[in-house]
Design a protein that fits this description.
With 237 residues, the chain is of the alpha/beta class. It has 5 helices and 9 strands; from the N terminus they run βαββαβαβαββαββ.
C-alpha cells in the first residue's frame, strides 16, 4: 500500500503559497494549507484542506499544533511561506506591526519546524523556506522586514547543516520581485513590464524541480530574479 504524500504549507490561500499548494496537489500530495482567512480562497480540491490560523498569534499556533491532523505522521514536506511587510521609517512603525512581523516571519517558522522535525526525520522529508531578496540587501524603510528575512535565511542555513545527517533536506528559496498582493500595503509595486517581475507559479515550478525527483544531492539555496529590475511608485489618490 502506497503511503499518501502529505505536505504542510503556510500562507497557502493566495500568491506563492497557493501556487505551491496547487502544484503539490497536481503531484499527488495531500496538502494541509494554513492561512488567516480560509474563506477567501476559491481553490477547492479533495487533496487540499485549509486550516484557519493567524500565525502572528502564538496562542493560535499552539492550538494549530495540537489539532488532530489524520495524516500528521505521514507529513514529508513543510513549506514556510506566510509573510507580510510594513515599510516605513523605523520610528513610524508601531509596536503592533513590529510584533506581527516578528511573530509571522521568525516565531511561527521556528515553532512549526520544532514541532514537525521528528516526523520529518522519520520520513526523511524536506523543509522549504520562502525567503526574500530583501534579506540580502539594504532596503530603505524595510528595516524590520529585511532584518527578519535575513534572520530566517540564516536559520534555514543552520537547519540544512543540522538536519542533513538525518536525511532531511532543507531548501532556502529567495525570490526577487514577485507579482502578488504582497504590495497591497506598500507605496510601490512591480513595474508593468512582464520582464520585471516573477509570477507565483514560476516559484512553484522551481520547487517542483527540487522535490519531485530524488537525485541523491541537494540544492540548499536558490535565488530567483526577473530579467529586469524595475519598480514603480503607486499613484496617490
Amino acid at each position: 500500500m502506497t503511503v499518501q504524500k502529505v505536505a504542510f504549507v503556510t500562507g497557502a490561500s493566495r500568491g506563492i503559497g497557493l501556487s505551491i499548494s496547487q502544484m503539490l496537489v497536481r503531484s499527488g500530495y495531500k496538502v494541509y494549507g494554513i492561512c488567516k482567512h480560509p474563506e477567501k480562497c476559491d481553490f477547492k480540491h479533495d487533496l487540499f484542506q485549509l486550516i484557519g490560523c493567524d500565525l502572528s498569534n502564538s496562542k493560535e499556533i499552539d492550538h494549530l499544533m495540537n489539532q488532530q491532523i489524520l495524516e500528521k505522521k505521514d507529513i514529508s514536506l513543510l513549506v514556510h511561506n506566510a509573510g507580510l511587510a510594513y515599510f516605513a521609517p523605523v520610528e513610524e512603525l508601531s509596536s503592533e506591526k513590529i510584533r506581527e512581523m516578528v511573530n509571522l516571519h521568525i516565531t511561527a517558522p521556528m515553532l512549526l519546524t520544532s514541532h514537525f522535525t521528528r516526523i520529518l526525520k522519520q520520513n526523511q522529508g524536506r523543509i522549504i523556506f520562502i525567503g526574500s531578496v530583501a534579506g540580502k540587501e539594504i532596503s530603505p524603510w524595510g528595516n524590520v522586514y529585511a532584518s527578519l528575512k535575513a534572520g530566517i535565511h540564516h536559520y534555514a542555513r543552520e537547519l540544512f547543516a543540522e538536519l542533513r545527517k538525518f536525511g532531511v533536506k532543507v531548501h532556502l528559496i529567495i525570490p526577487d520581485i514577485t507579482k502578488t498582493d504582497f504590495y497591497n500595503y506598500l507605496n510601490f509595486e512591480p513595474d508593468d513590464d512582464p520582464k520585471s517581475y516573477l509570477l507565483p507559479n514560476q516559484i512553484a515550478e522551481v520547487i517542483e524541480d527540487l522535490i519531485l525527483e530524488d537525485k541523491g544531492w541537494v540544492v540548499p539555496e536558490i535565488q530567483i530574479s526577473p530579467e529586469l529590475f524595475k519598480l514603480k511608485r503607486k499613484k496617490q489618490n
